[in-house]
Design a protein that fits this description.
It is a single chain. This protein is mainly α. The protein has a domain of 112 residues. Helix content is 93%, strand content 0%. It contains two helices and no strands. 0% of the residues are buried.
Amino acid sequence: MLSLDPGMMIWAWISFLVLFFLLYKLAWKPILQTIDKREKTIQDSLDKAENTQLEAQALLAKHEEMMKSAESEAQRIIKENRELAEKTRQEMVENARAESQKIIDKAKMEIEKEKESALISLRHEVADLAIDATKKIIGEALDESRQRTIVDEYINKIPNQSKN
C-alpha cells in the first residue's frame, strides 16, 4: 500500500516551494496586472455606462421639456389665431352693417329726391289743370303769369296745411 517516505516528502516540499517561488516571481505579477487591468477596464465600462445613462436621462428630461414648451407654444398660436379670426369676423360684420346702413341711407335720400321731384311735377300738373279748369269755368283767359302766381301761392299753402 501506500507508505510515507520522509525523504520523498522533503523533496516534494522543496520542489513545491521552488515552483511556488518561480511562479511568484515570474507569473504572479503579470497575472495580477492582467486581473487589475481587466478590473479597471470593467470599472471604466461601468462608469461610462452610468454616465451615458445619466446623459440619456438628462436628454430625455430636456426632450420632454421641449415637447411641453412646443405644446404650450402651439396652444398659444391656436388661441391667437382664434382671437384673430373672431376679431376679423366682427370687423366683417361691422363693415357689412355699416355698408348696409349706407345703402339704406342712400336709398332713403333717393326716395326723398324722387318724392320731391314727384311733388314738384304734381304741382305743375295741378297748376296746369287748375288754369285750364279756370279758363273753362270763367270763360275768359286771365293773364297767364297772373294765373300761375295765384296757383303757385295756393299750392304752396297746401303742404303747410297738411303739416299742421
